Each structure stands twice: as structure tokens, then as C-alpha cells.
User: Which sequence fits this backbone?
């Protein structure tokens, strides 16, 4: 059937238009599917749950840039909501300078949500008491290795210019031995750097939040137990949001869940184009063997 | 001397980077601490200055020679100067000496970052979705059995990455997880072990001075 060969030469502008349409439409009319929680996400959630509150810290390393913000930022926000609602100590830092603004944005968002609901200082989230933003210290190997001996040595001042050792929380937290889990959220290889330099030498547990395109590269670390858990792409973020909302009763905005509808539609559109292309290919091959 | 001195530096610093992982003696650990927390920080600051200087020189040259897209270099200089002044003078959220609010309009460094850099970066990366769709349509042809297997695996993993597969009761999420956990991990592990052995061998060759290409030509 010669007419089927038209599927071999679909103009790329048509493909762009269809993909654009299917990405935008679900943002306006979301499907609202529920996301089943996969084991890597559940493992990370359990690892955060297991951190002894007001004793050891959760450290979040914001190692992504604005390019991957839509996929990775919801992970940082969901982790912060989880940690703050369980009253865990939180340390936050960035290995790249681009991560600073994003970490600041995530903190403002989540601290704002909690403090809006708070009725007293006791149930508020306070800087220096509940969390500390360490900032950025180049090159990455300095904080990764340096935090094994002294956080205050690597970050004598925090992101806001306060002397680190004057902050109440930092009197109890000064090295990896005072942390229970470090989660590196990144579009690149920083989670592996933490495994190679920090875990191998100081024994810190490492979790990862990564983009969907790099999932295949990181699964071996999860299988060996070097990662205590992993959030894989926007789906991982949506699963974590689901766990936080379901188990902790937090009904704040879930951006990853909103993005899932667009991602589902885009995946189906891409698969449809690939199938059409192959229909055209087989029609042509059948006619001219 | 021009070759021996750099080789000596590489030998010493290379060994100092490796030894603290295996020798827990306090002297070794303290030396490592000084190298990491003091020496490396000073060197990295020089690298930052060098990078900035190189960027400025490259763009001045571009404007002088009127190379392709030279007017954009003026935008770079404008952005560099404005953000530096606002960042240094205005502080992170406008708490510095420089006023960063005019009426209700804020232009502190965090506001600029969140409202200019983040949307621009996100937009650039979002274009990838369009190019990937077009490339997948053109490249994914079932020419052979292996191509068919690749296509089926890709479809299962793609459906596993969205809730639709599970919504239809087809458990794509579980099958996708299995593909990533078992065949993917097995092949990746083999590649990673091979790469790691190659990296160790090359690093040792560089540290011990066997591999000298990084020194440049014979001049």
C-alpha cells in the first residue's frame, strides 16, 4: 500500500507541533493518574524516615542547574517537606554555583509553607535551629572530602554570611559522622562522586535524585547498596510527593505530579510517531523487497 | 627541567591524592587536610580568576574582530557587570548596601536568578523534547531482530516511566524496573568495571611519568 509510505516523510514541524500540543494540553487539563511507588523511591523515603530526629542530619546537595530544574526541583522540595515534618536536622549545600539560587528557592518555598501553618515558634521551621544553608565551596572535591573531617572547616561561614559555629544546630553537626544520610540531586555525576570519595572513605549513606535520561547509568549503584535509595526522573519525584502527601498528610502543591500528565502524553506521542514511521518503512519494504 | 619539574609535581600530588585513602596515620591525614582545605582552595580561586579573565579576553577579541554573533558579547559584558554590582552591593536578597527595590519592583540577585536564569535554562533544555521526538521518529526503524528488541525495551521502559501503563493494568512499571535492574545493570556493570580499570591504568601511567602526552609537544 503505497499511501502508507507517507508515514516515512512526516515533516518535523508537524512532529514539533504535535509534541508541543500534547505537552501543553495536560498542563491545562491534567489527567490526574495515581503513581504507584517503585522500590528505589520507597527505599529513599525509608532511609529519610530512619534518620534519628534532633540527633543526626539529612544533607541535601543541590547539584543541578536551571536546565534540569523542572525535573529535579520537585525532589528537593519533597525531601525538605518530609524532613521538616519529621523534625530532622537539614543541611543544604551546592557543589555548583548554579545550585545556590535553586536551593534558596526550595528553602523559601518549603519553610514558607510550614511557617504559614505554624502557630508558635516551637512548630515553626527556624534557620540555624532546624536547618542550615552552607552555600557553595569550589571545587567540588573540597566539600565532598572536607565534610568528612569538619564542616565548619570547609564552610566557616554559611550562605548568608553567618559564622557557622554560631548556629545552634551546627554545635551538634560537624562531619559525616553527624549525618545519617546525604542525598545528592543532580543532572550529572555528583552522586557518584559522593560514593567514590565520601562513602568509600567516611562511610556516609548516599541517596540520589537524578534525571530520567541518566537512570540506566545509576542503577548499578542502587543494586550494590551504595545508594540507599534513588529518585528517578520526574516520576521518582511524583512518587516521593505521593508518599509525603499520603503518609504525612501534607497537601501542598505537587509540581512533579502535575508534570506527569505532560510526560505521559509526550511519551505516547513519541511512540505513536515511531510506530507510524515503522508502518511506512514496512510498507515500502514490502513493495520493493 | 621544563619536563622534569611538571612530572615531579604530578608524581607528588598524584600520590598525595591516593595515599590518604589507604594510610590512616595522623600525619598523612593532616597533610591531606592542609592540601584539600587550604592549597586546593587557593588554586581553585586562581582558576576562577583565570576563567573570568579568559572569558573577558575572548569576548573583547570577538568584538574587535567583529566575529560571528559579536553583538552578543556586549550583552555578556552588560549582564556580567550588572549582576556583579547587584550581587556584591545588594547581597543575596537585597539585604546589602545597594537598594534593590524600586516601588514594588525587586531586582535582587535571587529575584533575577529565579525569574531570568531559571526560565531561560529550562526553556533551552525543554527544546530537547522536540529534537528527541523528531530523532526517535527518524532513527527507530526495525531493520533487524536486535533493533526490534531495542524498540520493545524502549517502549516498555517509556511506558513504565509514566503512570499510564499501570492505569491500564499492564504493569509496565514493574517490567520496566526489571529491565533496568537486571539486563541494564549487568551490562552497565561490565562497562563500568572496564572503564574503571582503564582509568586506573591511565592514571598510574600519568602519575609515574610513563604517559607524557599531556605535557604537549617536544618543544
Assistant:
Amino acid at each position: 500500500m503505497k499511501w502508507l509510505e507517507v508515514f516515512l516523510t512526516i515533516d518535523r514541524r508537524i512532529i514539533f507541533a504535535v509534541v508541543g500540543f500534547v505537552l501543553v494540553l495536560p498542563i491545562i487539563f491534567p489527567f490526574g493518574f495515581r503513581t504507584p511507588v517503585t522500590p528505589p523511591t520507597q527505599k529513599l523515603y525509608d532511609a529519610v524516615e530512619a534518620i534519628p530526629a534532633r540527633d543526626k542530619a539529612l544533607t541535601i546537595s543541590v547539584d543541578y542547574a536551571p536546565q534540569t530544574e523542572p525535573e529535579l526541583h520537585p525532589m528537593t522540595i519533597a525531601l525538605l517537606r518530609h524532613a521538616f515534618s519529621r523534625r530532622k536536622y537539614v543541611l543544604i549545600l551546592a557543589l555548583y554555583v548554579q545550585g545556590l539560587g535553586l536551593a534558596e528557592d526550595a528553602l523559601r518555598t518549603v519553610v514558607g509553607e510550614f511557617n504559614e501553618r505554624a502557630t508558635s515558634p516551637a512548630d515553626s521551621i527556624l534557620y540555624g535551629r532546624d536547618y542550615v544553608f552552607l552555600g557553595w565551596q569550589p571545587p567540588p572535591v573540597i566539600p565532598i572530602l572536607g565534610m568528612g573531617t569538619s564542616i565548619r572547616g570547609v564552610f566557616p561561614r554559611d550562605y548568608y554570611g553567618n559564622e557557622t559555629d554560631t548556629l545552634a544546630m551546627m554545635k551538634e553537626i560537624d562531619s559525616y559522622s553527624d549525618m545519617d544520610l546525604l542525598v545528592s540531586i543532580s543532572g550529572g555525576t555528583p552522586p557518584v562522586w559522593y560514593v567514590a570519595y565520601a562513602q568509600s572513605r567516611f562511610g556516609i549513606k548516599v541517596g540520589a535524585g537524578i534525571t530520567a535520561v541518566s537512570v540506566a547509568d545509576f542503577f548499578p549503584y542502587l543494586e550494590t547498596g551504595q545508594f540507599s535509595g534513588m529518585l528517578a526522573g520526574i516520576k521518582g519525584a511524583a512518587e516521593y510527593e505521593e508518599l509525603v502527601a499520603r503518609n504525612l498528610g501534607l497537601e501542598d502543591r505537587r509540581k512533579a505530579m502535575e508534570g506527569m500528565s505532560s510526560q505521559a502524553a509526550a511519551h505516547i506521542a513519541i511512540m505513536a510517531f515511531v510506530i507510524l514511521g515503522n508502518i511506512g518503512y514496512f510498507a515500502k519494504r514490502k513493495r520493493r523487497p | 627541567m621544563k619536563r622534569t619539574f611538571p612530572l615531579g609535581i604530578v608524581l607528588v600530588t598524584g600520590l598525595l591524592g591516593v595515599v590518604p585513602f589507604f594510610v590512616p596515620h595522623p600525619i598523612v591525614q593532616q597533610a591531606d587536610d592542609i592540601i584539600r582545605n587550604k592549597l586546593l582552595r587557593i588554586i581553585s580561586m586562581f582558576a576562577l580568576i583565570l576563567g573570568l579573565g579568559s572569558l573577558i579576553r575572548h569576548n573583547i577579541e570577538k568584538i574587535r574582530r567583529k566575529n560571528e554573533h559579536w553583538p552578543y558579547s556586549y550583552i555578556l559584558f552588560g549582564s556580567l557587570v550588572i549582576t556583579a554590582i547587584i550581587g556584591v552591593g545588594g547581597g543575596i536578597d537585597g539585604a546589602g548596601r545597594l537598594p534593590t527595590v524600586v516601588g514594588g519592583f525587586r531586582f535582587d540577585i535571587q529575584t533575577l536568578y529565579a525569574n531570568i536564569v531559571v526560565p531561560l535554562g529550562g526553556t533551552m533544555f525543554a527544546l530537547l523534547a522536540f529534537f528527541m521526538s523528531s530523532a526517535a521518529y527518524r532513527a527507530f526503524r526495525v531493520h533487524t531482530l536486535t533493533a526490534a528488541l531495542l524498540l520493545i525495551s524502549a517502549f516498555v521502559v517509556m511506558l513504565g516511566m509514566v503512570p499510564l501503563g499501570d492505569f491500564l493494568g499492564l504493569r509496565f512499571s514493574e517490567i520496566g524496573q526489571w529491565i533496568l535492574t537486571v539486563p541494564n545493570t549487568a551490562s552497565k556493570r561490565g562497562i563500568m568495571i572496564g572503564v574503571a580499570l582503564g582509568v586506573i591504568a591511565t592514571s598510574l601511567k600519568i602519575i609515574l611519568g610513563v604517559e607524557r602526552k599531556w605535557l604537549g609537544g617536544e618543544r
Notes: Chain B touches chain A through 54 residues (CB under 8 Å).
